[in-house]
Amino acid sequence: MKKTYKIEVDCANCANKMEEAAKRTPGVKDAVVSFMTLKMTVEFEEGCKMEAVMQDVLRNCKKIEDDCEIYI
Amino acid sequence: MNKKQKKALFRILASGALFLLVSLLPVDGALRFGLFMIPYLIIGSDILKKAGKGICNRQVFDENFLMAVATVGAIALGEYAEGVAVMLFYQIGEWFQSYAVGKSRRNISALMDIRPDCADVERDGGIVRVDPEEVEVGSVIVVRPGGKIPIDGVVIEGRSTVDASALTGESLPQEVEVGSAVISGCINRSGALRIQTTKEFGASTVSKILELVEHASSKKAKSENFISRFARYYTPAVCYGALALAVLPPLARMVFFNADPQWQQWLYRALTFLVISCPCALVISIPLSFFAGIGGAGKAGILVKGSNYLEMLAAAKYVVFDKTGTLTQGVFEVNGIHHSKMEEEKLLEYAALAESYSTHPISKSLLKAYGMEPDLKRVSDVREIGGNGVTASVDGRAVAAGNGKLMERLGISYQECTQAGTVVHVAIDGSYAGHILISDRIKPHAKEAILELKKCGVKEIVMLTGDAFAAAAQTAEALGIETFYSGLLPADKVEKVEELLSRKKEKEKLAFAGDGINDAPVLARADLGIAMGALGSDAAIEAADVVLMDDDPAKIAKAVRISRKCMRIVYENIYFAIGVKLLCLALGALGIANMWLAIFADVGVMALAVLNAIRALFVKRS
C-alpha cells in the first residue's frame, strides 16, 4: 500500500533527513521524499495501520527537523 | 515571495545595515562586543534556537548547530565581524535558495497548468457549472471558444479547432467536428462545442498526465542518491576534521617541536572548516537540476516519469524502434499507381468503385485515395472472391481488382510490383490495366529522427517489425537503419530485446520506442520504455517510463538531448561544488583561506549551482 502526503520543509538536506527518519519508522517499507515537489510517498508494510504509522513518522521527522510538517 | 521569505529578507537587510554601521564605528572593548551582538542576534537567533533543539533531539551534525558553533567560536576568539558575517551570509544563502526553489516550483507548475477548474454540464435544459470530478460518463458538456476541454469525449455538435499545445508542445491546431474524439486539456479555439463525455474525470487524459507528473519525482536518480549519501558522510567527516585540526596540530607542536601551540590560530582554522561543512549547495542543486530537466521536457511534450529515467535516457546507446505506428504512420495509403494503361485517376476510380461494397482495410484506403463518395448506382454484379479480390461491373465495364491470384484465376497476365507493400492489380474488360500500390507511409520526421539520434551518439538503432522482409527492408533503407528484424510476433520482439540487452555493456542503456499497442511487454522489458502518441492511450502511459505526448519520432532525439543537457548540468554541479569545497578545506587547513573566503565560497557555490540547475528548464524550440 502506497500513499503520498504533502509536506512542508525548508531545506533539501532536511528533506533527505526526513526520508531517512521515515524509512526507519516501524511499519514503513519504503519512503521517498521529494524536496522539489514537497511530497512524501510512503509504502507501508502489509497489515499495519496507516494512520498510526504516519503519526510515528511525523514524530520521528519532527525529532530530526523541528521545522517540518506532514499533512496527514 | 511568501511571508516567511519576506520576513527573512527584512531581517537580512536590517542586520546587514546594522552590521555595516557597527563595523564603521570606532569603538573598542565590551561596547564593541555589545554592538556587534545586535545584528548577530537579529540574524542568528533562530539558528541558535534550532541548534539548541537539535542538541536536545541528539541531532548534532545539523547545519544550524555547525553554524552556531562556528559563529559563537569566532566571536569567542574576538573575531566579531567574522562571526556576524558568517551568520549573515549563511542566511542570505538560505534565503536565495528558498527563493530560487520556490520560483522554479511555480514555473514548473505553470507549465503543467492543464488542470481544468470546472465543467459546464447540460442538466434539465440549462447549463450548470460543476467540478469536473462530478461529471458522469455520458453527460453532455459545453465548451466555449477559449475554454479548456475538461473531460475526454466525443463531439456531438459544433465544429472548431482545438489546440493541444499544453499537452504536446506542438501548436498545430486540430480540426474537430461532429463525431471527433477530443481529449481533455486541449483548448477550444474557434467555435462552441457540445461534447458527450466518454470517461470520468479521473480516467481522462488530463488526470492521467497530472498524476504522472506529480509522481515523477518519486523515483530518484543514482546521482541524486549518491549526493544524499555523500552529504550524510561529508558533514560528520568535516566536523571530525575540524575537531582534529583544533587539537592535533597544537598538541604536536607542543610535544614534538616544543613550540608555541598557537591554540587560537588552529581553533580559527577549525571554525573555518565548520563553515565549509554545510552540504547545502550540493544537496539542493542536484534534485533542482533534475526537477528543472523534467519540467523542461514536459514543456516540450515529453513526460519523464522519474529522474532515474532522465539519467538512463542520457545513457541510451541502443534505441530499438517498433516499425508500424512508430516510424511509419500505421495507416495504409495508396502510395503509387504503376503501369496504368489509362489516366491514373481513372484507374483508381474503377478500382475504388469495384471495391466500394467491401469493408476490407484495402478497400478503405482505395476509397480514401479516390476522395469522393462512391456513386453506388454505377456499380453492379459485385462478386467478392475470398483471399483474391473482387469483380464487378462498373459503368457497364467488367472490372477485376485484386491480387496476383485473381489475375491468374481470370487468365490475365500481370506485372509484378518491384516495391514492397500490398498490390491491387486491376483488369478492365479482360485486359490488364495496371496496379495500385498500397503501403504504410513513413512518418515525415522519421528520417531526421534517426539521423539526430546517431548524431547524439546512439551506437545502434534497431527496427523490429511483424511485417514481411521486403517491406521492412525498404523502410529500413529509406530511414538509414542498418539493423532490422522482420516477421516478428509480439513475443519474438521481447526475445530480440533481451538478446540486445545481454549483448550491451552495463552502463549503456537500451531504449525501446513503440506506440504502446501490443508492445507493452517490450516497453516494460527494455531499460527504458518510450511510448509515443500516448494521448488517449492509458496502457502506454502505464507501461512506459517516458511518454511522448504526440507521435513524432523526432521527439526521441529531443528527449535524449534534453536529458544529456540535464545530466551535464548535474555533473557540473557535483564536480564544481565538491571541488570548491575540498579546495576551501585544504586552503582553510593551511591557514590561507580565512572565514570570509569560506563563507563566500559556500554561499557563492550554492548560488551558482542553483542558477546552473535552473538552466535545465530551458529547452530549445526546434
Layout: helices, strands, pairs:
The complex is a heterodimer of chains A (72) and B (622).
Chain A: E1 2-8, H1 12-24, E2 28-34, E3 39-44, H2 50-64, E4 69-71
Helix pairs in contact in A: 1-2
Chain B: H1 3-24, H2 29-56, H3 63-76, H4 80-111, E1 119-123, E2 126-130, E3 140-143, E4 153-157, E5 160-163, H5 165-168, E6 174-176, E7 181-182, E8 187-188, E9 193-197, H6 205-214, H7 222-256, H8 263-276, H9 280-299, E10 302-304, H10 307-314, E11 316-322, H11 323-327, E12 328-338, H12 344-354, H13 361-370, E13 379-385, E14 389-394, E15 397-402, H14 404-410, E16 422-428, E17 431-442, H15 446-455, E18 460-464, H16 469-479, E19 483-485, H17 490-503, E20 509-514, H18 520-525, E21 528-531, H19 538-543, E22 546-548, H20 554-589, H21 595-614
Parallel strand pairs in B: 11-18, 11-20, 18-19, 20-21, 21-22
Antiparallel strand pairs in B: 1-2, 1-3, 3-9, 4-7, 4-9, 5-6, 5-8, 10-22, 12-17, 13-14, 14-15, 15-16, 16-17
Helix pairs in contact in B: 1-2, 1-4, 2-3, 2-4, 3-4, 3-8, 4-9, 4-21, 7-8, 7-9, 8-20, 8-21, 9-20, 9-21, 10-20, 12-13, 15-20, 20-21
List keywords for this structure.
heterodimer; A: 72 residues; alpha+beta; Alpha-Beta Plaits; 4 strands; B: 622 residues; Calcium-transporting ATPase, cytoplasmic transduction domain A; Rossmann fold; 4 domains; seven-stranded mixed β-sheet; six-stranded antiparallel β-sheet; 21 helices
Characterize the structure shown.
The complex is a heterodimer of chains A (72) and B (622). Chain A is of the alpha+beta class. Chain A contains two helices and four strands; from the N terminus they run E-H-E-E-H-E. Chain A has a single domain, classed as Alpha-Beta Plaits (2-Layer Sandwich). In chain A, strand 2 (28-34) and strand 3 (39-44) form a beta hairpin. In chain A, helix 1 packs across helix 2. Chain A is globular and about 35 Å long. The model of chain A has no long low-confidence stretch (mean pLDDT 86). By secondary structure, chain B is an alpha+beta fold. Chain B folds into four domains: 1-111, no CATH class; 119-200, Calcium-transporting ATPase, cytoplasmic transduction domain A (Distorted Sandwich), CATH 2.70.150.10; 302-329 and 443-565, 3-Layer(aba) Sandwich (Rossmann fold); 330-441, Calcium-transporting ATPase, cytoplasmic domain N (3-Layer(aba) Sandwich). Chain B is built from 21 helices and 22 strands. In chain B, the strands form four sheets. Chain B has a seven-stranded mixed beta sheet, with helices on both faces. In chain B, strands 2-1-3-9-4-7 form a six-stranded antiparallel beta sheet, with no helix packed on it. A six-stranded antiparallel beta sheet of chain B has the order 12-17-16-15-14-13, with helices on both faces. The longest helix of chain B has 36 residues, at 554-589. The mean pLDDT of chain B is 85. Chains A and B meet through helix 1 of A and helix 2, helix 4, helix 7 and helix 9 of B.
